[in-house]
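protein under study:
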Amino acid sequence: MKQNYPITILLALSLIIGLLTLSDYGESWDELNLYKYAERSLEAYITWPQHGVIPVTGDRFENYGPAFVMFTAVVTSTFTRIFPNAQAVDIQHLVYFLTFLVGVWAFYQLSIRWMSRAAAFGATLLYITQPLFWGHAFINPKDIPFLSLFTLTACLGMKMHDSLLGRGTDSVFDSAPVAWSGLPSSTRRLLTAVTIFWLVSLALLFGGTPLAYRWLENAIRAAASGEPSLITLIASNIHKVPPEVYIEKFFVLFLQARAVYFLIVTTILIRLYRRNLPSALRVLGIILPAGILLGITVSIRIFGPLAGILVAICLLWKSGARAWLVIAAYALIAVTTTYLTWPYLWPNPIGHFFETVQIMAQHPWPGSVLFNGVTYRANGLPASYMPILLAIQLTEPVWVLFGVGVAVAIYGRRPEPVEGSIKRRMENRELLALMLIWFILPLFTFIILRPTMYDNFRQSFFILPPIFFMTGLAFERIRKPVLQGALIGLVVLPGLIASVRLHPYEYIYYNQFIGGVSGAAHKFELDYWGISYRDAAQEVNRIVPPNANVWVDGPAHLLGTFARPDLHLYSAYEAERADHYDAVVTLARYGLEKTSFPDASIVYAVTREGAVLTVIKKP
C-alpha cells in the first residue's frame, strides 16, 4: 500500500484542484450537438425494440460511437435532478476530468511494468502536468476520454494476460484444457456443437439484420399485391392498410424474437459450461472486464481496435499460440459490447461499421485550419503538420527526455547482474515494440496519408502515452533518489507555470520553442473551441441593460449557456436580425475580432499572454 501513496496523493490533489476550478471552464463548441446525439442514441433503446426505429439525422456524429456521451448524459441528468441549481455543463466537465484521472492511473500502472515506481511516478507527473492535456481534460468529450480509455484498455489487457497466461501464476487458463480432456467424449462433442451453433446462429441473426428486413419487406409487399403466402394467413387485413405498417410490425416482432432467442440460447450455453466445465467460465470471467472495456473504447472512436491489436500482440509476444483462444474470446466480448453500446450499428452492424471506417478515414470537415501563419483546407495540410505541433505543444523537456529514454531502451543501462540484465533487455524490447505500434506507426500514417485534421492534433492524443513512457526511462537513468527527485521537479515546472498563467485556457498552450502563446498568436489556432465565451458572458451580463440585444459571432450557444435569461442573442446561424445591438461578442478566430463590426469599439477582451481570445464591442 505504501508503494501506491505517491500516485494516490497525486490523483487526490488533482481532483481537489479540479473541483475548485471546475466552474472556470466554458462550454466547448461541439458539446451541444454531441449531447443531442447522445439523447437520440439513448432514445433508440426504447424505439428500436418497440418500433424498430433508430432516430437518425444523417450527420457525422452518428459515425462516432456514443458510449461515453450517453454515460455522461445519464450522469448529468441524474445529478441535475438531485441538485437543480447545478450547471449541467460543469457536471459534464467533471465526468471528463474524472475519466482523465482514470487514464492517468492506467498510465502509471503501465509504466511500472517497465521501470521503477519512482521513474514511473516521474513520467506520470510529467504526463498529467502537460497544459495541453490538463486543459482538454475539462472541455473535451471525445479525445481525452478516448485517450484515457485507450490507455486503460491496454492496461487491463496486459493485466488480463498476467492473470491468465503469466509465468509463475497458478494459471486458471491452463486448468481449463486439463478439465476439458477429462470430460467424456460425448460431453466434449455436445459442448463443441452447442458453442458452434450459438456462434453461427447469432452471427446470422445479428449480422444478417438488413437481409431479414429486405426479405420481410419483399414478402409483405408481395402478399399485399395479392400473392398467396403464409403472411396473408397471419395478416388478414394486409390488403386494407399500407404495407409499411405490417413491415414495421413484423420487423419489430423479428427483433423481439431475436432478443428472446439470444437470452435463451446464451443461458443454455452458460448452464452447460457451468455444469460440465466451470473452469472455462472462470477464464471468461477474467477476460470479460478487459473485453467490455475494449468494446466501449471502440464505441467512442473508430481507432479503438488499435488498443485491442496492442493487447493481442502483447499476448502473442509473451505466450505464443496458446494465447489465440483468449484473443478470440476477448474480441468476441468486445464486438458484442460495441454493438450493444452503439445504436447506429443495430440495423446493419457490418455495413454501418465499415461505412464508419470509410467516412472517418476521410474525416469530413469543411473548415479551414491556421497553421504556421498560413490558412489551409483541413484536407490539404502539409506533411509537417503533426511533427511541428508535437514539437511546440508539449513542454520543452519532453522531447529531450524522450530522446534519452529511447537511447536507454536501445543501448541498455549500467551493468547489472546477468539475470537482471536479461530481464531489463526484455522489458526494453517490449517497450520499444509498444512505442513502434502505438506511436511511430500511427504518426507516420498521419504524416504520409495526411488525413483531414483540424483543431490542432487533438484527434491524435491517443498515440502520445509512449512518448511519456520513454521519459520514465530517462528518469531511471539517475540512480540517486535526491537527484532523480530534483530532475523530476525541474522538468514539470514549465507545465505547472504555464497552466497557472493560462488558466482556464491551458489547452491553447504553446511552448517557448515558438515563443509561447504570444508567439503562436495569428500563426496557430488558439481558442478554437470558444471556451472563452463563458468569461465574455459574465462581462456581458454585467455591462448590458435588461432585455439587451447581443450579436454573437460563431457559436452563439456557448455564450447563451451562461448569459442572463433576459438577453436576446443573435448570430449568423439565425435568419432573424435586430435593428440594433447593445453589444457584439466575437471570437478571435478566422480574424473575426477584426472583420466583425469593424467600426465598433472594443470594451473588453479575454486575453492570455498578450494573445486575444474573445472581444466584446459596443456598436
